TrEMBL record:
Its EC number is 1.4.3.3. GO terms for biological process: D-amino acid metabolic process; methylation. The gene is mnmC_2. The lineage of its organism: Bacteria, Pseudomonadati, Pseudomonadota, Betaproteobacteria, Burkholderiales. Its cofactor is FAD. This is D-amino-acid oxidase. Residues 8-351 form the FAD dependent oxidoreductase domain. One of its GO terms (molecular function) is FAD binding. It comes from the Bacteria. Gene3D superfamilies: D-Amino Acid Oxidase, subunit A, domain 2, FAD/NAD(P)-binding domain.
Length: 402
């Protein structure tokens, strides 16, 4: 029988949110266990395939103001946190370049009007710059002469997703986080069988937590929506030493909009499809053709790129496409989810709020969901009492977070 060890916090899921939270909590002095169904490389997570663009303005063309605000706060946190990790992680804030083929000009008006409608006007004024063809070539010499117009969204960021996952984990482990890998499908109730007893459980299982997010009644007469659903995303990872792009480039297109995110060593992530589907089978030929043709239309040197990976993952998505933190004070369970297509953009601010709630629970504060760090994001954090089927409580014992 597995001997049971006691921890302050057990974190379920070592994807993006789980690693960020483990790193923060252990540095605050908590004894942390991290339990993951997959392996330390994170290959079972959405975070592993992500382009990891940190683009609040570009995303505001399809997202709400809440995402822009969380994104701005999170990019500041990434900048500070990555600098504290002992391993360097590729991170840049050189902006996003947006381009379109001449026949798709209408897409640009749509894009800019959506950005203006959602983002704070001062941010738009500061960061959005119209470019002529010469300007496009100055920003990205590889695209000189290829696009008569473009937009530079200055200051937007990007990081190396796999490098960040690796560095966060190795730092968390060196600070004392206890990890259990290849644990299978873990939930709150099964922790003791993995040798873990915890005063608080933080659920960061992404789509793996679906059973803990029950269906919600639909709005405006629509039927019930799943509390958490997967949105299929397909990406291609290529090696393209002849391309030489320095920052993420988005190609506007009425049917096949794509982004191309450069990674270290001439690697590029080309993505991404977004399909309302729970299917996690391999990338379809249609999607691969669309992504690669669009990349080739952006720069012909992609024709000589080598395809390294074709990846699929599903983005964990709430009915309103916004992140949520649920706090069951009595059961001492905190659940973070719904990072959707913005996990890298917003996870630092979201997990910072979740960790503040966890600390409040460890300190036996009576309304943990209402600590100041949580109130900063009204509506994101909800106090709940889960049904017995969901709320298998961890063993609670009192004591302050040291
Ligand atoms: C194709 C694609 C491109 C993306 N591009 C970007 C981008 O450019 N910018 C951006 O901001 N975001 C992007 N995202 C979104 C981002 O990757 C996700 O929002 C983020 O990874 C979600 O983080 P998470 O920790 O909630 O889930 P995940 O990262 O998926 O981690 C969940 C972890 O929990 C583990 N787990 C699940 N169930 C269990 C269980 N029962 N027991 C134990 N462990 C379990 C999983 O194995 C996994 O390791 C992209 C996503 C996709 C799919």
């Amino acid at each position: 029988m597995t001997a049971v060890q006691s921890f302050d916090v057990a974190i379920l899921g070592a994807g993006l949110a789980g690693r960020l939270a483990a790193w923060q909590l252990v540095r605050q002095g908590a004894r942390v266990a991290l339990v993951e169904r997959g392996s330390p490389d994170g290959s079972g997570s959405a975070a592993y395939v992500a382009a990891a663009m940190l683009a609040p303005l570009a995303e505001s063309a399809i997202a709400e103001r809440r995402i822009v605000d969380l994104g701005i706060a999170s990019v500041d946190l990434w900048r500070a946190w990555l600098a504290q990790l002992p391993e360097p992680v590729f991170f840049q804030e050189d902006g996003t370049l947006v381009v379109w083929h001449a026949r798709d000009r209408a897409e640009m008006s749509l894009f800019t009007s959506r950005v203006r409608a959602v983002s704070p006007p001062e941010l738009v004024a500061q960061r959005m710059r119209a470019l002529d063809g010469k300007g496009v070539g100055e920003v990205e010499p590889a695209l000189a002469g290829r696009f008569p117009q473009g937009l530079l969204l200055a200051g937007e960021g990007q990081l190396d997703n796999r490098g960040a996952l690796r560095a966060l984990l190795s730092c968390a482990v060196s600070e004392g986080v206890h990890c259990v890998w290849e644990a299978g499908e873990v939930d709150v109730a099964s922790l003791p069988s993995h040798g873990i007893r915890a005063r608080v459980v933080l659920d960061c299982r992404g789509l793996g937590a679906r059973a803990a997010w029950p269906a919600e009644p639909g709005k405006d007469g629509h039927g019930a929506m799943p509390g958490l659903r997967g949105l299929r995303g397909e990406v291609v990872r290529v090696h393209a030493p002849d391309v030489k792009l320095h920052r993420p480039v988005r190609l506007l297109h009425p049917r096949y909009p794509i982004y191309i995110a450069p990674k270290p060593n001439d690697l590029y992530v080309i993505g991404a499809t977004e399909l309302e589907s729970e299917d996690d089978s391999p990338v379809s030929v249609r999607s691969a053709l669309e992504l690669l043709s669009a990349a080739h239309s952006l720069h012909p040197a992609f024709g000589e790129a080598r395809v390294l990976e074709l990846n699929v993952q599903r983005r964990p998505t709430r009915p309103d496409h916004l992140p949520a933190i649920r706090v069951d004070q009595q059961a001492r369970v905190v659940r973070v989810n719904g990072l959707y297509r913005h996990g890298f953009l917003i996870a630092p601010a979201v997990t910072e709020a979740a960790c503040a709630v966890v600390s409040a629970l460890l300190n036996d504060e009576p309304a943990a969901h209402a600590v100041p760090a949580a109130l900063r994001w009204p509506g994101m954090i909800e106090a709940v009492t889960e049904t017995p089927a969901l709320a298998e409580a961890p063993v609670g014992h009192t004591g302050l977070l040291h």
